[in-house]
Amino acid sequence: MPKTKTLEKNKLQEPKMFKVILLNDDVTTMDFVIEILMNIFYHDFETASKIMLEVHLNGSGVCGIYTQEIALSKQKKVFNAAKIANFPLRVKVEEE
Predict the structure, then answer these.
(1) pLDDT, tens digit, for every residue of 17-37?
(2) What would the pLDDT profile of 38-79 be if each residue is shown by its tens digit?
């Protein structure tokens, strides 16, 4: 009788994804927000401008959706850049 191999089906789960959200304030300049969106989140100028206006007009805007580790890393980069530039820009991470 021939030997048969049984392949075990392992279902890999997709990692949970997290939204990185910028929050509006009355001090941080629009130019700085665009700079953050281009340099940390790698958006082009047009996309960065659209997100900046969303933050400005609606109070918050999604910068991107990432795995938890990357989202938290980007949150820390935004916090550090804002601190260096003396802006109170806030950013939060939420599970999608």
Answers:
(1) 999 999 999 999 999 999 999
(2) 999 999 999 999 999 999 999 999 999 999 999 999 999 999
Tell how many helices (H) and how many strands (E) occur in the chain: 3, 3
Q: How far apart are CA 8 and CA 63, in angstroms?
A: 39
Domain that includes residue 64, residue range: 17-95
Q: Which residues face 92 on adjacent strands?
A: 21
Give domain status of residue 3, yes or no.
no
Report the domain count for the chain.
1
Residue 28 lies inside a defined structural domain of this protein: yes
Which domain CATH number covers 36?
A: 3.30.1390.10
The predicted model scores a pTM of: 0.85
Under a CB-based contact definition with an 8 Å cutoff, are residues 90 and 55 in contact? no
